[in-house]
Design goal:
Elements lengths: L1 H47 L6 H11 L14 H32 L1 H14 L8 H8 L2 H26 L3 H9 L4 H39 L4 H10 L3 H29 L5
Helix pairs in contact: 2-10, 3-4, 3-6, 3-8, 3-9, 5-6, 6-8, 8-9, 8-10, 9-10
Length: 276
């Protein structure tokens, strides 16, 4: 009897293993097939247009490029690693400033009708403006390329944080606020104990949207301002007619953007809850 029971357990374990393997293969098969099709189309286009490097040429260039990504031969000749870190540093500073200002501003706009009436039209007016339109103003104000690029990141990152946070505050059930009023809670406790837990998913959605926009903008801003950064490096490689390096830069920008997006999506899911 025990032998039969053990065989049944083994069969169940094997069946569960097969199911997990099949699920994993199904999950991987789609992306692998899609990427293979992409590489095939890329190869066909490169064969018809000689100026475009083939996947093989690009791969060999990438291996060589990443064999020493942190070399430093002067201000205008640094490895792709240093340029990528410079871009991430600008994004972190501009994005951080936007969070420090934008999230409290969103709370205030969503919480108080008078502040909402004053500032909502301004946000609605300035939000559609292209972030790069703010770059000349940043150059005028700061007289330097690096703070101007950070300014562009800041101004493009702040609007999603303000809007999503304000929407989250405005959607907090009135019952929650009525209970807080009955308990005579201070405004600080209302904000931290009642509003913040309910608004957090909205706030993190704004943060996720902001980081994607910030990463898009920094590349374009660095192309215009020069100096160090992945955008400047990409433009410099175009001036040097190294098209394979341009393709590599595109993949690097995409991968970093995807990683940032994935990280913040995971963070948003961690703090999102559903009401029973």
């Amino acid at each position: 009897m025990s032998t039969v029971t053990n065989m049944s357990r083994v069969d169940a374990i094997l069946a569960a293993g097969r199911e997990r393997l099949e699920a994993a293969l199904k999950a991987v098969a789609g992306p692998v097939a899609g990427f293979a099709l992409f590489v095939l189309v890329w190869q066909v286009v490169a064969m018809r247009i000689p100026e475009i490097p083939t996947p093989g040429v690009t791969w060999h260039a990438a291996v060589e490029l990443f064999s020493d990504p942190f070399y430093d031969n002067g201000p205008n000749d640094k490895g792709i690693g240093w340029n990528l870190l410079a871009s991430l540093e600008r994004v972190a500073v501009g994005f951080g400033l936007a969070a420090v200002i934008g999230i409290p501003a969103g709370f205030a706009i969503g919480r108080y009708a008078a502040i909402n009436a004053m500032f909502s039209p301004i946000v609605s007016l300035l939000r559609p403006v292209s972030p790069l339109a703010w770059l000349p103003l940043g150059l005028l104000l700061f007289k330097a390329a690096n703070p101007a690029a950070i300014w562009a990141i800041f101004i493009c990152s702040i609007w999603p944080m303000i809007i999503n946070t304000a929407v989250g505050v405005s959607r907090v059930p009135q019952d929650y606020l009525n209970v807080a009023r009955v308990l005579n809670l201070s405004e600080w406790k209302v904000t931290t104990k009642v509003l913040l837990p309910a608004v957090l998913p909205y706030m993190l959605t704004g943060v996720r949207l902001s980081i994607g926009t910030a990463w898009l903008v920094i590349v374009a801003a660095e192309m215009l301002t020069g100096g160090t950064g992945i955008g400047f490096w990409l433009w410099d490689e175009w001036n040097n007619l190294k098209v394979e390096h341009i393709v590599i830069a595109i993949f690097v920008i995409g991968i970093v953007g995807l990683l940032l997006e994935t990280l913040l999506v995971a963070l948003a899911r961690r703090f999102t809850y559903t009401e029973e």
